Automatic annotation (TrEMBL):
PANTHER family: BETA-CITRYLGLUTAMATE SYNTHASE B-RELATED, RIBOSOMAL PROTEIN S6 MODIFICATION PROTEIN. It holds the Pfam family RimK. The keyword Nucleotide-binding applies. GO terms for molecular function: ATP binding; metal ion binding; ribosomal S6-glutamic acid ligase activity. It comes from Acidithiobacillus ferrooxidans (Thiobacillus ferrooxidans). It comes from the Bacteria. Its cofactor is Mg(2+); Mn(2+). SUPFAM superfamilies: Glutathione synthetase ATP-binding domain-like. GO terms for cellular component: cytoplasm. GO terms for biological process: SOS response; translation. This is Alpha-L-glutamate ligase. Keywords: ATP-binding, Ligase, Magnesium, Manganese, Metal-binding, Nucleotide-binding, Protein biosynthesis. InterPro entries: ATP-grasp, ATP-grasp_RimK-type, ATP_grasp_subdomain_1, Rimk_N, Rp_bS6_RimK/Lys_biosynth_LsyX.
Length: 302
């Protein structure tokens, strides 16, 4: 009997809901789950060969790889993905797409170049550009760290004075700043894209205590059963523009109800969306990835 395909899951937090769901889904699909904590990996280059040691042992080839690395492990995760791609493993998201989508401003640049509308957003590095950025974007405005997730590093400045003070601090500490026009809707839409199809969607409403609608910030989610076709088209194009096989695309409405993409998450949590929709997203993902891996002629519809 041939050995079952091996599917690696790169995850630091092994007890996380998404990691556990994916491990179970890999086993349920008849494949062998291989849990890799990125920090226990050693990459070795020697002449023209590349090798990966996991906890001091040479790692056997993997059929496919699912990156579930958080923001702080983006660079390590992308180097591991580059190794796996070189080995011929089928990576759910590539090294390049992970790096790109983890940079909040660079990814918006790529979306805009693809014709996808985003909120008015300024990026700058020097104090001399601060006042122009504040007046061009207008207050209230949202300041964002260039990397961050679950709403961490996203803050609201209601007035020009507050915005200037906040920017002074961030320019001093981070040497760069990103500010975005505040959209007053208090809700956003998250669409999960898998190989060019929207497979699930939810609406998230901010609580009375916060402007952020992330579930970690007290937001409330509900399933989005009648997904507008323009939202789905924007989500598909956003994931494709960033080269992502799997992505969570966040959309908010402008004052004139135009859908604008806030960001595209390369490692969206499965917990909220599976709980809200009742869908087996982990199972769908693993089956689609195995199909990709085992039918090399089948190209993802990116
Ligand atoms: N320009 C904006 N106007 C109003 N609210 C915003 C704006 N940008 C972000 N928000 C709110 O803050 C939340 C977090 O913002 P964003 O998605 O950029 O950060 P994140 O930390 O990467 O979140 P996630 O982990 O969901 O990807 C959004 O879900 C939205 O509710």
């Amino acid at each position: 009997m041939p050995a079952p395909p091996r599917i690696a899951i790169l995850s630091h937090h092994t007890g996380l809901y998404s990691t556990r769901r994916l491990l179970d889904a890999v086993a349920a699909a008849g494949a062998e789950p291989v849990l890799l904590q990125p920090e226990h990996c050693l990459l070795m280059l020697d002449d023209t060969a590349a090798r990966l040691y996991y906890r001091s042992s040479l790692l056997a080839p993997c059929t496919a790889v699912i990156p579930r690395v958080g923001g702080p492990l983006t660079h390590l995760g992308s180097r591991l993905l580059r190794f796996f791609a070189g080995e011929g493993s089928c990576c759910l998201n590539s090294a390049e797409s992970l790096e790109l989508s983890r940079d909040k401003f660079a990814s918006l640049q790529v979306l805009v170049a693809a014709g996808i509308a985003v909120p008015k957003t300024a990026y700058f590095t020097q104090m001399e550009q601060r006042d122009l950025a504040v007046s061009a974007v207008g207050t209230p405005l949202v300041h964002k760290l260039l990397s961050g997730s679950q709403g961490v590093g996203v803050s609201l400045a209601e007035t020009d004075i507050a915005a200037r003070g906040m920017l002074d601090t961030f320019l001093h500490l981070q040497h760069e700043a990103m500010v975005q026009r505040f959209l007053p809707g208090r809700h956003d839409f998250r669409m999960i894209v898998l190989f060019g199809e929207v497979i699930a969607a939810m609406r998230r409403d901010a609580s009375a205590e916060d402007f952020r609608s992330n579930l970690h910030c007290g937001g409330r989610a509900s399933a989005l059963l009648d997904l507008p076709e323009d939202f789905a088209a924007i989500a598909r194009l956003s994931a494709a523009s960033l080269g992502l096989g799997f992505a969570g695309v966040d959309i908010m409405l402008a004052e004139n109800q135009r859908p604008l993409v806030l960001e595209v998450n390369p490692v969206p949590s499965l917990e909220g969306i599976e709980g809200i929709t009742g869908q087996d997203i982990a199972g769908t993902l693993v089956k689609a990835l195995l199909q990709q891996a085992l039918s090399p002629s089948l190209q993802p519809r990116l």
